Inverse folding.
């Protein structure tokens, strides 16, 4: 059967090429991680760094800096990059719309409102006492309101036959509503609470802690495992909902489960890092250009690209004006936006038509 | 007379404008009686100023603008709470017609809450100011923006921009207020008292050798407390000038800045956010924390201070620093060390840093004197807090 | 009878789209659904594909109510190609055809999946374009790929909604030849909606003529495509004569009703 061999070879060739690309991106991420570990406001010579990493160093302060300051921050950037771009790629696949990401569906603005509420109300209602548990309170509130926003958006869309256009428009509307809420809280809160809010809205990875990562990483692993299991269903969804159903996809269930998972992922990370824009939108598009639209490969690729972009951005935020820190959101937007525009203009195919 | 004339010429276009608006909106009945009122009070006021043989003072304010005003000022709206406090200590509080949110909230001891509130400093209620018909509005040099002049000057209201809290400006600004309110003697007496305290501090720390000086990091308490990162108040500006008040206090108190950052006065933020690693590397002997959300005149309970500092020790890497290990962490209410009462707060900071040099000095005594003697109100509140002494 | 429809009605809100549809079709047949715009052809096809739920009546497949099938089971029996395919983010030809194996795939691709796909690609001459993206193809090529995707499901029933609508005459013939071959050689029941009455008459074993949600006539092409039927349903005077390839129909003029 020569024809079968030929098709098989074609298929295996394409799979091999994609795996190779994934491997290369992975290597790039590892290299960037190593670079990020070696650089910082404090110079740690390579030899000392190796000693620290292998637990041989006697310099307590350097060990602390590398293990408790630099590493958690780097891991946090990677985890956030993965969460946000994974959320982006899944939302885009579910809604079959290139504009979908945690922002457009209202997750981010909902989470922002929740955090703002916790910061402003927490500071005024509970006084200082709340602040001890405040960080968790902010995170919890961000998560609850992030989910709430998606539920409302999804509810509105269901009223109107679950069309994806309505879903996106509802997302924009609800996003605006929550943004207005945040603006209102900013306006009416007193100065000190406001400062915290501004910091939170800018987003960033300072003060990243292993404690938080111990929650986020298992969540991330489980979520990714479930999502990758649905890769074929998501692929089928690209042919349209009706066709997907005739291919044996339980469309409604897939939508709910996937949307819930990515909302969970995005809002929990946003809760701890503040709002970091653009990654959720850009990483999936870059990945589609380099590896194609097959979700089996696109999902891991997006995660790697998102992690890579955010890690590089944060490293730049730390290093550019060291020791002065630039909010990472400024970097992602500053480099992300022009790059994205470049891709829009140069890209080979037109998903927008 | 000239003033009255000027006002009249301005009220005419004003009336025309209002009349036009009324015509356009078509509501002629009820509000029509109101616009006529503004024209009458200047007429009544003018004979009064004439009988006093108005003396006129031309001066340059801190923003560099030349202004001419009749003396003494009798009707002033004060947006700047430090200016409101300075006017009060000069004994001219009666001339204050209205203040803003920050004055009422942060300086309750000035007892100005009974007077109108023109709102937030950056977004004052211009209509309310106009309706109060002040001679002059006092504002900060950098806020609110020039809209204030654009809207008020055509109505004959002067805008004077002074700060009354920056170290190199506040003495001259107080003298100016002395002249404007005819309280020059009181101003000189106060400055003499203030200078004696500053001199005491300068004399005591003058003998410190460079290696004896403690390194101090001035940080925003609010950001640190809510995991917002390390925000430093730099002690110097670009070009070696004094930096932000909270940071500059370190230098005045005979310490050295643990950070090596320079502040750009053009920036709206008074703090610079730095990498956590940088703070760990600089490893200060002492940390001063600053904010206005802890302490103040109405505060009686020191518990929140302790809880906040415990929280910071628990959740941040402060506990890894020398300052954290020796509990050399001190909280200052911003006005006490970085603003108008700097001369008292820096003395307190110096005593925290070098207790041996200041055994016989009680900074709180000066604070008491300031409130009781100069502001004529009871001394209350918590203004500084020592984490070290709390143990 | 492999597929039967009994008393099927479909409603959108208050509006009745299909009323009391009765059909019966066997494997190996090519069945066309024809009728003017808005007659309910697409709704009928979607009901057969169990995309739309019936208000009344039942669609039977191999003696079972289609709604009693699990989604995956049904997907192994029926393939569906809609009239307007949206791609979302376009996949490659190979990936699209592989999607047809979705009901059989757990996660990895088996040798069986590969063999089915390879056969179909060979038969439809798609092998050369396997790495191209769907949106880069011409209308005819794309239609073939979408049919290939449905074929990869190894269905007994193939449902095609106007498969020839955007194609030039050569591609129209290619697609319909392919459809007839499938029916004859693999005993697939092909149900398709066609606009072109001559092509419908030429390639179909059985035609259902729809008017206003009801079946107006059904049976062999020459029984259904009569001047009187077409005039009543389409409002057009038609001349019909037999040619060497089915019926020749000439629309003469619209008639006033």
């Amino acid at each position: 059967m020569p024809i079968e061999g030929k098709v098989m070879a074609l298929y295996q060739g394409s799979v091999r090429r994609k795996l190779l690309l994934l491997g290369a991106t992975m290597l790039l991420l590892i290299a960037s991680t190593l670079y990020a570990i070696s650089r910082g406001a404090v110079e740690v010579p390579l030899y000392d760094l190796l000693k620290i990493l292998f637990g041989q160093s006697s310099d307590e302060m350097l060990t602390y800096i590398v293990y408790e300051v630099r590493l958690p921050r780097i891991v946090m950037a990677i985890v956030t990059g993965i969460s946000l771009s994974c959320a982006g790629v899944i939302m885009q696949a579910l809604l079959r719309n290139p504009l979908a990401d945690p922002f457009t569906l209202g997750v981010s603005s909902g989470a922002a409102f929740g955090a703002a509420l916790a910061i402003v109300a927490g500071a005024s209602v509970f006084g200082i006492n709340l602040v001890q548990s405040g960080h968790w309170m902010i995170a919890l509130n961000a998560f609850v309101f992030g989910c709430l926003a998606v539920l409302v958006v999804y509810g509105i869309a269901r009223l109107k036959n679950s069309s994806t256009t309505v879903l996106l428009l509802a997302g924009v509307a609800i996003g605006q509503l929550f943004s207005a809420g945040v603006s209102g809280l900013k306006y009416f809160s007193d100065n000190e609470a406001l400062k915290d809010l501004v910091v939170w809205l800018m987003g960033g990875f300072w003060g990243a802690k292993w404690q938080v990562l111990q929650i986020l990483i298992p969540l991330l692993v489980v979520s990714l495992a479930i999502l990758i299991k649905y890769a074929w269903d998501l692929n089928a969804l690209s042919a349209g909902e009706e066709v997907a159903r005739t291919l044996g996809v339980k469309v409604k269930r897939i939508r709910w489960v996937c949307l819930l998972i990515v909302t969970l992922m995005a809002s929990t990370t946003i809760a701890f890092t503040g709002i970091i824009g653009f990654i959720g939108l850009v990483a999936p598009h870059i990945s589609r250009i380099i590896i194609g639209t097959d979700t089996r490969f696109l999902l891991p690729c997006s995660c790697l690209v998102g992690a890579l972009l955010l890690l590089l951005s944060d490293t730049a935020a730390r290093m550019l004006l060291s020791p002065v820190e630039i909010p990472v959101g400024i970097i992602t937007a500053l480099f992300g936006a022009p790059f994205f525009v470049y891709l829009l203009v140069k890209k080979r195919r037109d998903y927008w038509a | 007379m000239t003033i009255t004339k000027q006002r009249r010429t301005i009220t005419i276009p004003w009336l025309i404008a209002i009349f036009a608006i009324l015509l356009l909106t078509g509501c002629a009945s009820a509000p029509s009686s109101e616009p006529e009122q503004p024209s009458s009070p200047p007429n009544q006021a003018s004979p009064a100023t004439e009988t006093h043989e108005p003396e006129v003072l031309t001066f340059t304010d801190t923003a560099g603008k030349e202004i001419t005003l009749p003396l003494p000022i009798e009707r002033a709206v004060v947006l700047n709470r430090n200016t409101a406090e300075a006017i009060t200590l000069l004994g001219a509080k009666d001339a204050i017609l209205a203040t803003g949110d920050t004055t009422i909230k942060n300086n309750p001891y000035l007892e100005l809450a009974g007077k109108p509130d023109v709102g937030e400093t950056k977004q004052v209620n211009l209509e309310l100011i106009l309706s109060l018909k002040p001679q002059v509005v006092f504002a900060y040099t950098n806020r609110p923006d020039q809209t204030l002049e654009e809207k008020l000057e055509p109505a004959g209201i002067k805008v004077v921009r002074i700060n009354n809290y920056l170290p190199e400006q506040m003495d001259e600004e107080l003298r100016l207020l002395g002249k404007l309110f005819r309280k020059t003697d009181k101003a000189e007496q106060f400055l003499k008292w203030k200078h004696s305290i500053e001199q005491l501090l300068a004399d005591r720390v003058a003998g410190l050798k460079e290696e004896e000086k403690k390194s101090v990091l001035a940080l925003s308490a609010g950001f640190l407390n809510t995991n917002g990162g390390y925000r430093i108040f730099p002690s110097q500006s670009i070009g070696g000038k004094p930096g932000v008040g909270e940071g500059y206090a370190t230098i005045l108190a005979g310490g050295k800045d643990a950070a090596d950052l320079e502040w750009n006065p053009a920036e709206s933020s008074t703090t610079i956010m730095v990498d956590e690693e940088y703070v760990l590397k600089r490893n200060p002997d002492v940390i001063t924390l600053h904010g206005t959300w802890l302490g103040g005149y109405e505060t009686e309970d020191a518990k929140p201070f302790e809880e906040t500092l415990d929280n910071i020790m628990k959740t941040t890497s402060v506990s890894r620093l020398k300052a954290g290990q020796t509990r050399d962490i001190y909280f200052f209410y911003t006005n006490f060390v970085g603003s108008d009462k700097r001369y008292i707060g820096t003395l307190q900071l110096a005593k925290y840093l070098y207790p041996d040099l200041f055994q016989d000095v009680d900074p709180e005594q000066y604070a008491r004197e300031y409130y009781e003697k100069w502001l004529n109100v009871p001394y209350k509140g918590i203004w500084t807090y020592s984490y070290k002494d709390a143990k | 009878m492999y597929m039967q429809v009994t008393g099927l009605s479909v409603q959108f809100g208050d509006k009745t789209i299909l009323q009391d549809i009765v059909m019966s079709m066997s494997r190996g047949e090519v069945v066309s659904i024809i009728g003017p715009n808005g007659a309910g052809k697409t709704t009928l096809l979607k009901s057969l594909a169990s995309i739309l739920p019936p208000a009344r009546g039942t669609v039977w497949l191999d003696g079972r109510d289609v709604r009693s099938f699990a989604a995956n089971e049904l997907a192994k029996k029926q393939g569906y190609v809609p009239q307007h395919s949206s791609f979302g983010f376009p996949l490659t030809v190979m990936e699209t055809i592989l999607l047809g194996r979705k009901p059989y795939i757990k996660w990895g691709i088996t040798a069986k999946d590969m063999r089915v796909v390879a056969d179909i690609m060979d038969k439809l001459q798609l092998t050369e374009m396997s790495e191209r993206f769907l949106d880069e193809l011409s209308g005819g090529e794309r239609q073939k790929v979408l049919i290939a995707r449905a074929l990869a499901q190894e269905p007994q029933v193939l449902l095609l909604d106007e498969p020839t609508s955007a194609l030039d005459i050569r591609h129209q013939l290619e697609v319909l030849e392919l459809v007839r071959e499938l029916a004859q050689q693999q005993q697939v029941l092909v149900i398709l909606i066609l606009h072109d009455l001559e092509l419908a008459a030429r390639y179909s074993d059985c035609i259902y003529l729809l008017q206003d949600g009801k079946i107006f006539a059904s049976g062999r092409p020459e029984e259904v495509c009569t001047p009187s039927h077409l005039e009543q349903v389409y409002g057009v005077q038609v001349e019909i004569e037999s040619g060497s390839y089915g019926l020749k129909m000439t629309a003469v003029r619209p008639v006033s009703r």
Observations:
- The first strand of chain B starts at residue 55 and ends at 60.
